[in-house]
Design goal:
The protein starts with 9 loop residues before the first strand and ends in a 5-residue tail after the last strand. The protein has a seven-stranded mixed sheet with strand order 11-12-13-10-9-14-15, with helices on both faces. It has a six-stranded parallel sheet with strand order 1-6-5-4-7-8, with helices on both faces. The chain has a five-stranded mixed sheet with strand order 16-3-2-17-18, with no helix packed on it. The protein is an alpha/beta fold and 494 residues long. β14 (387-393), α15 and β15 (411-416) form a beta-alpha-beta unit. Helix content is 37%, strand content 18%. The protein has helices at residues 16-28, 37-53, 55-66, 70-93, 142-150, 163-179, 193-201, 214-226, 247-266, 287-295, 306-320, 347-352, 354-357, 374-382, 401-408, and strands at residues 10-12, 100-102, 115-121, 125-128, 154-157, 187-191, 207-211, 233-236, 243-245, 278-282, 326-330, 341-346, 365-371, 387-393, 411-416, 455-461, 482-484, 487-489. The chain folds into two domains: 10-237 and 442-454, Aldehyde Dehydrogenase, Chain A, domain 1 (3-Layer(aba) Sandwich); 243-416, Aldehyde Dehydrogenase, Chain A, domain 2.
Length: 494
């Protein structure tokens, strides 16, 4: 497919303002916010079934455009359909609405009226698709799934790294909506840099979900804040995902930890937001030799786009040129590939030039930071910025509570004796962190509470019964969990 497409299929943003305006108006007119939770659950499951049905076709397109392996892409389609079904379950259960009722009480000062509060859809949402997850964080990925679940129509800005796949996925999703009586324009696709800028600035857009670079995300974040009516911008940007290997852990399982790191930071070309990019290791423990041994069987890989490949080589050159840098490992590669790379420094050098060292290099590169004693380690950790994850490798029975507390001040997820690549879908998952990992550390882009980004509260005071949403009416007709006069009430009771 190429050229200009009709609104409701794909918008080719040659005239960005007009084209994006048409797309946003089409999405806003789709009536998504008036749908019921049961209807949206049916929509989400229909899209999931369609993704599974078209898996082979979509994977073939993805291989051509992204250079990712068939195994990885198949797994990602499964993840995408799982996310869609998961959010269908979340909204059917109902606790995400935070339905809360307070009975009137004239004896209080001031008197309390009848108050009923819940969360409602925030409005049309702009979603910026990611380069590194062409399914799971793209057109019908987690941001789109959670926004639709919340009751918000979505205008997706396609990533230029996989345009044909984006268009086909949009077609599949829109057809699946229509198949179960839903509005096709609940999801509309736009393309182009100018389209992205116009989308963030459109007055009908109520929130933005973004996954991408720190530079690009910050520029759009600033645009969202500079609007006449600023809107929330939920950006997932850059993350180093620090790892600490304690002295006791290095003594107990040096080869095992080194092998795990080798597999994690090179997985799919190191193109994961959770790639462990900064690893603190005890000086003199021999970790470098063990890691080089583990890397001996790992070949170079072609990255997602030529731009990402160029940025990787530039970032690697910058790191190896820093004072105190040592190139520990560089695998063989031809000009189109990215080799696995390990750069090392010491904790003192990192602390002396933290701004230079603490910059993400997207791709198969990790930085080892040698520390000599707990004081050096603590000083280096204190210099860290926000990350999506932090990991601790410790020996059995070792007390790492203080270390966990220090890392937990900046990371959204703490991993113990494991690796952060791979983010499970669940009710308790948190995929967020302090700047620059995200622009809103109190929120997550994975897990049940990802839906909270696209909901906003409304309270009803002394409202007539016919005005109230069913979720707040007497008798709890929809049987959802509610808090009544401060007490949590299970489903089907009020």
């Amino acid at each position: 497919m190429s050229g200009r497409h009709t609104v409701g299929e794909v918008v080719d943003a040659t005239d960005a303002a007009a084209e994006v305006g048409a797309a946003v108006h089409a999405a806003a007119a789709a009536g998504v916010e008036r749908s019921t939770r049961a209807e949206r659950a049916r929509w989400l499951r229909s899209i999931a079934e369609a993704m599974d049905l078209h898996r082979d076709e979509l994977v073939a397109i993805g291989r051509d455009e992204t250079h990712l392996s068939e195994l990885r892409l198949v797994g990602e389609v499964v993840r995408t359909s799982t996310q869609l079904r998961f959010f269908a379950d979340v909204i059917e259960e109902g606790s995400h609405l935070e339905a809360t009722l307070d009975s009137p009480d004239g004896s209080l000062v001031p008197p309390r009226p009848d108050l009923r509060r819940m969360l409602r859809p925030i409005g049309p949402v702009a979603v910026f698709a990611a380069s590194n997850f062409p399914f799971a964080f793209s057109v019908l990925g987690n941001d789109t799934a959670s926004a639709l679940a919340a009751g918000c129509p979505v205008v997706v800005k396609a990533h230029p790294g996989h345009p044909h796949l984006s268009r086909r996925v949009a077609e599949v999703g829109r057809a699946a909506l229509v198949d179960v009586g839903g509005p096709a324009d609940a999801v509309v696709l736009v393309e182009g840099f100018e389209a992205g800028v116009a989308l963030v600035g459109h007055p009908l857009i109520a929130a933005v979900g973004f996954t991408g670079s720190t530079r690009g995300g910050r520029a759009l974040f600033d645009l969202a804040a500079a609007r006449p009516a600023p809107i929330p911008f939920y950006g997932e940007l850059g993350s180093l995902n620090p790892v600490v290997v304690t002295e006791a852990a290095a003594t107990a399982d040096l080869d095992g930890i080194a092998g795990g790191l080798a597999g994690s930071f090179t997985r799919d070309g190191g193109q994961y937001c959770t790639k462990p990019g900064l690893v603190f290791v005890p000086a003199g423990a021999g970790f470098e030799d063990a890691l080089c041994d583990a890397l001996g069987t790992i070949g170079a890989q072609r990255l997602l786009t030529d731009g990402i490949g160029s940025a990787f080589h530039e970032g690697a050159d910058r790191l190896t040129g820093l004072d105190g840098a040592e190139l520990v490992w560089r695998g063989a590669a031809d000009g189109a590939e990215a080799p696995a790379m390990v750069v090392a420094t010491d904790a003192t050098s990192l602390a002396a030039d933290a701004d230079a060292w603490l910059q993400e290099c997207f791709g198969p590169l990790t930085v080892l930071v040698r520390y000599d004693g707990r004081a050096e380690l603590d000083a280096a950790i204190a210099a860290l910025e926000g990350s999506l994850t932090a990991s601790i490798h410790h020996a059995p029975g070792e007390d790492v509570a203080a270390l966990a507390a220090a890392l937990g001040r900046t990371a959204g997820r703490l991993v113990f004796n494991g690796w952060p690549t791979g983010v499970a879908i669940g009710w308790a998952q948190h995929h967020g962190g302090g700047w620059p990992a995200t622009t809103a550390s109190v929120h997550t882009s994975v897990g049940a509470t990802a839906i909270r980004r696209f909901l906003t509260p409304v309270a009803y005071q002394d409202a007539p019964a016919e005005v109230l949403p069913p979720e707040l009416r007497d008798g709890n007709p929809l049987g959802i969990p509610r808090r009544v006069d401060g007490v949590l009430v299970p489903p089907h009771r009020s």
